[in-house]
Write a structure and sequence with these properties.
The chain is an alpha/beta fold. Helices cover about 35% and strands about 10% of the residues. The longest helix has 20 residues. The chain is globular, with a radius of gyration of 19 Å.
Length: about 350
């Protein structure tokens, strides 16, 4: 499989990244089957693996740790922290404070069964925490050898720029990657996030190239509505409720993309993943299979090249920079929530 540079870290990773959110109680509960899927991905040439402490309350990291025994050095291993793990209600056991990150990284190292994390990511923006607090903590963890590089997920362009400025001004390590949502249906990051990441030489690891299953073929016009079945996706009902007009627009666009894929002689899944991988600012889309069949259907996208004509037709269906449903954007800006607008 083709390898690409992870920003300016000097590290190269496979063109596709294996995401493990669906391994554990949120998806495939059978550990042996999850490990079998991970090994199949590694054998197919994937060298980049992404997980998070919140996935199945740490169970995903435990599964990944089991799967990587004897193969750890083959992999660029990424995980994330920020969200409360499991049913923990302690407000200090979440976020990106020094207090929490120094504990969270040790928890992840233990579950993963490793002595270092190649890419440690802040899972969501934390406007309540000073950037210097977060960056100084991550820099110390990097200097201690516990993490090799660090990044963030769903940061808006303004925060990406601000964080890079703080790193320069305070002589701290800098964020080396961004993990945003990106798909045929969710193109908002093309406006500012991808250009900002390219400007600072950051790796970009988009999640949900299949738009939470919308582009897997599960949602088609005329078919019975399919509700999300995993606990992770049941929390995101506004992205799947077909009574909402924005999701009806997604359904229409999905149908058009499916027709385009047929005419191009590829599957809708291949079209969706190849589109995300095609952007010059993107390092590696994250694929998140729950079954071996899903893995096999997604791996083939690594060999697909989209013609200029196909890319033009994609733009005609959903123009550059447009999220058809704003709820798919990843991080809702708290300053725009109704409570914040009550002057």
């Amino acid at each position: 499989m083709e390898h690409r540079p992870l920003g300016r870290t000097g590290v190269s990773v496979s063109k596709l990244c294996l995401g493990t959110m669906m391994f554990g109680a949120w998806g495939t509960a059978d550990h042996d089957e999850s490990i079998r899927i991970i090994h199949a991905a590694l054998d197919a040439g994937i060298s980049f693996l992404d997980t998070a402490d919140v996935y199945s309350a740490g169970e995903s990291e435990l599964i990944v740790g089991k799967a990587l025994k004897g193969r750890r050095d083959e992999i660029v291993l990424a995980t994330k922290a920020y969200m409360p793990v499991g049913d923990d209600t302690d407000p200090n056991r979440r976020g990106s404070s020094r207090r929490w990150l120094t504990e969270a990284v040790e928890n992840s190292l233990r579950r993963l069964g490793t002595d270092r994390i190649d890419l440690y990511q802040v899972h969501r923006p934390t406007p309540e925490t000073d950037l210097e607090e977060t960056l100084s903590t991550l820099t110390d963890l990097q200097r201690a050898g516990k993490i090799r590089a660090f990044g963030h997920s769903t940061y808006p362009a303004s925060l990406i720029v601000q964080a890079q400025w703080v790193s320069d001004d305070r002589h701290l390590g800098r964020f080396r990657s961004e993990q945003p949502p990106y798909s045929l249906l969710t193109r908002g990051i093309e406006s500012e996030v991808l250009p900002a990441a390219a400007t600072y030489g950051m790796g970009v690891i988009p999640y949900s190239p299949l738009a939470g299953g919308w582009l897997s073929g599960r949602w088609r016009a005329g078919a019975d509505a399919v509700s999300p079945t995993s606990p992770a996706r049941q929390r995101l009902a506004d992205r799947f409720d077909l009574s909402l007009p924005e999701n009806q627009r997604k359904l229409a666009a999905t149908e058009a993309f499916a027709q385009l894929a047929d005419e191009a002689g590829i599957t809708l899944i291949e079209l969706a993943i190849a589109f995300v991988a095609n952007h010059p600012a993107v390092t590696a889309p994250i694929i998140g299979p729950r079954t071996m069949e899903q893995l096999e259907s997604q791996l083939t996208a690594a060999e697909v090249t989209l013609s200029a004509d196909v890319l033009d037709r994609i733009d005609a269906i959903n123009p550059p920079g447009v999220n058809i449903n704003p709820a798919d954007g990843g991080w809702p800006n708290p300053t725009l929530l109704p409570a914040a607008l009550r002057r």
